[in-house]
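Lay summary. Proteins are chains of building blocks that fold into shapes, and those shapes determine what they do. In this project we predict the shape from the chain. Here is one chain we studied, written as its sequence of building blocks.
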Amino acid sequence: MQETDIYALIGALVICAAYALAASIRRLSTRFKKRWAAASAGVSLAYVFLDIIPELAERSHVIQEAARHAFNPIKRIYAITLMGMLTFVALAHVGKSKGHEDHGEQGEQYASWYFLVHVGGFVLYNVLIGFLAVGRAHDSIPSLCIFVFAIALHMVMIDGMLTEIHGRGYTRWGRKALALGVLIGWWLGSTGTLSELAFSRLFAFLAGGIVITSANEEFPREDQGRFWYFVGGAMLYATVLVQI
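And here is the predicted shape, written in a compact code that computers can read:
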């Protein structure tokens, strides 16, 4: 195991700790909830535009080379990203449907199905995050630290969303599954189990999920927003990103 893989493991464990501490962090930050949401939205927006989108552009050649005879092969990675966005939009839509509120055996079956699909999607989301931690560690230690900070903040918000939707089912089982997903992703990255092509496709798909999740869960709503905290979070994180 390389030294950078050990640093990546530490980063992955910090992200896992964010899940363990998420409920306590939210309780401590209740007083500043609106400012917290606005600043988090700004950080996520900067992350998407200065980290996710450039990464997609860099990885487009991998899929292009694998499908050089296909029609518009360079657009494939963005088509996969769109599929990821639509998948996470569908998950959010299903969660709001009235079937989730039905009572009786049919309603319980629906709730169990939705729980598995919804949380399972975020487990894959976390596998990618663990994998990306290895890549950031190979880039540089400051790059890894910035990545871990942004993702840990993002995971606290995701944890709050899933707790609100699934309640005890998530806090008992789902939270552990998501944290395990991060460690599985780290293992895949450190062992080189996943091919570059497979990872690029997975990255493109889940990048769409990152974009839509940031928009849905962290962008300050009209009754919650604090404009200058939003702008400050985006500008501060963007300034750090362009330096690494």
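What the prediction tells us: The helical segments are 3-28, 33-66, 76-96, 104-139, 141-166, 168-191, 196-217, 227-241.
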